[in-house]
Each structure stands twice: as C-alpha cells, then as structure tokens.
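re: that chain from earlier
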Amino acid sequence: MSELLEGQLSLLDMGPATAPVEATFPAWYTPSKSRKTANMRVLQGRHPMGMRLADSENCGSCKHMLETGTRAGNTYKKCALVPMTHGAATDIRSKWLACEKWESQ
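^ sequence. v structure.
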C-alpha cells in the first residue's frame, strides 16, 4: 500500500516547506482581518473599494464621502459610490488614496 508508482514523490521527497511571503502594504493603507477583499485589492494596486487609484488626492477631500449617523458615539465614513451595507467592510478612511471617480467637494 505504501509503494509509490514511478514518477510519484513521497512527502519526504518534497523538501523543506517554504515560509509564506509577507505582504507589503502601502503607507496610506492599514490592513485589517475583517477587510480581506480590500486587502487583496490594495495588494493588486487598486483602491480598497475596487476602482482604480487616482493620482494624488485622498478620500477625505472627495464629495462622495459621507459620514453616517453615530452609534455608540462613533461616526462612520462611507463612499456614496458603493452599496451601503451598514458594516465595517464598506467603511472608508479619509487618508486613503482616492479612486478614479474622485471629485472635489
């Protein structure tokens, strides 16, 4: 039962395991465990909400940034261009680089 067919490797023949590659995020973005999709998009060179990045502006100076009502004293920033989910995954940060749809306030 433990015999290998010609050309097959056993687990011992595969060599040492390699360490996972550590992802490097840009300075304007802080990764989060709850934002896995956004993390992936940033590593691909896109805006966390999925659009292409703008040149030099940030989300805080965009007219599409909304501040939603408070809950427990917190104000949540959302983008009017993406569906509103009332969850942390669609929160945006003022310091993020703006997307291609950025417009001045």
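The longest strand covers residues 53-58.
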